[in-house]
From TrEMBL:
Residue ranges of domain Ferritin/DPS in the record: 26-163
Xref: SUPFAM superfamilies: Ferritin-like (SSF47240)
Matching InterPro entries: DPS_DNA-bd, DPS_DNA-bd_CS, Ferritin-like, Ferritin-like_SF, Ferritin_DPS_dom
Stated name of the protein: DNA starvation/stationary phase protection protein Dps
Superkingdom in the source lineage: Bacteria
Source organism per UniProt: Streptomyces rochei (Streptomyces parvullus)
MF annotations from Gene Ontology: ferric iron binding; oxidoreductase activity, acting on metal ions
Length: 187
C-alpha cells in the first residue's frame, strides 16, 4: 500500500520529502519488529521437547529487546514528523511476508524456522540502513545498533543448529516449514 508519508514538518537539516521516504523505510522496520516480537513470543509459548527450558528462557530477553527496538523506531518516526502506525491492521496489510507458520513444535524445529525469520529481518534491516544512510546519519546509526543485536540473536539461534564443522543443519532452507522439518530431524 502506498501512502504519502511526507510530514508537515521534520527535524532540522532534512527536507520534508526525504523525511517522508525515511518514514516509509522506518514504518516497514516498525512492522518487521512488531511482527518479530509477536513471533518470538509465539515460539516462547509453543516450544516443546527436551530443549524446552533453554529455548524458552533464551527467547524472553529477545522479546524484550525487540520490543524496545520497535519503540525506538516508532519514536524516530514521530521525531521526523510522521505517524508511527503500530496497529495490527497496518502491520498485516502493509507487510510483505507471510505469518509465522509453525505451531506447537520441538525446540529445534522452532529455532530452525526462526533462523529463516531472522534472515528476513536482518536483510530488511540492512536494506533500511542503506536507504537511511542516503538521508540521515542519526537514523542510520539507530538501525545499525539494532542490526548488531538482531545478528547476535540469530547467532544464538544458529548455535543450536550448527555442527562442530560450522555447517547449519537447515542448510539452504528458504521457508520456515522446510527449515522446521530439517530442524526436527536434529531434535
Amino acid at each position: 500500500m502506498t501512502h504519502d508519508l511526507t510530514p508537515k514538518y521534520t527535524v532540522p537539516g532534512i527536507e520534508r520529502e526525504a523525511a517522508g521516504r525515511l518514514i516509509g523505510v522506518l514504518r516497514m522496520r516498525l512492522h518487521a519488529l512488531n511482527d518479530l516480537h509477536l513471533t518470538l513470543k509465539h515460539v516462547h509459548w509453543n516450544v516443546v521437547g527436551p530443549h524446552f527450558i533453554a529455548v524458552h528462557e533464551m527467547i524472553d530477553p529477545q522479546v524484550d529487546q525487540v520490543r524496545e527496538m520497535a519503540d525506538d523506531v516508532a519514536e524516530r518516526i514521530a521525531a521526523l514528523g510522521g505517524v508511527a502506525q503500530g496497529t495490527p491492521g497496518a502491520l498485516v496489510s502493509e507487510r510483505k511476508w507471510d505469518d509465522y507458520s509453525i505451531g506447537r513444535a520441538d525446540a529445534i524445529a522452532h529455532l530452525a524456522a526462526l533462523d529463516v525469520v531472522y534472515t528476513g529481518v536482518v536483510e530488511g534491516m540492512r536494506a533500511a540502513i542503506d536507504e537511511a544512510g542516503k538521508i540521515d546519519n542519526a537514523t542510520e546509526d539507530l538501525l545499525i545498533g539494532q542490526l548488531r543485536d538482531l545478528e547476535q540473536f540469530q547467532w544464538f539461534v544458529r548455535a543450536h543448529l550448527e555442527n562442530a564443522g560450522g555447517t547449519l543443519a537447515t542448510g539452504t532452507a528458504t521457508s520456515e516449514a522446510e527449515a522446521a522439518e530439517r530442524g526436527a530431524e536434529l531434535g
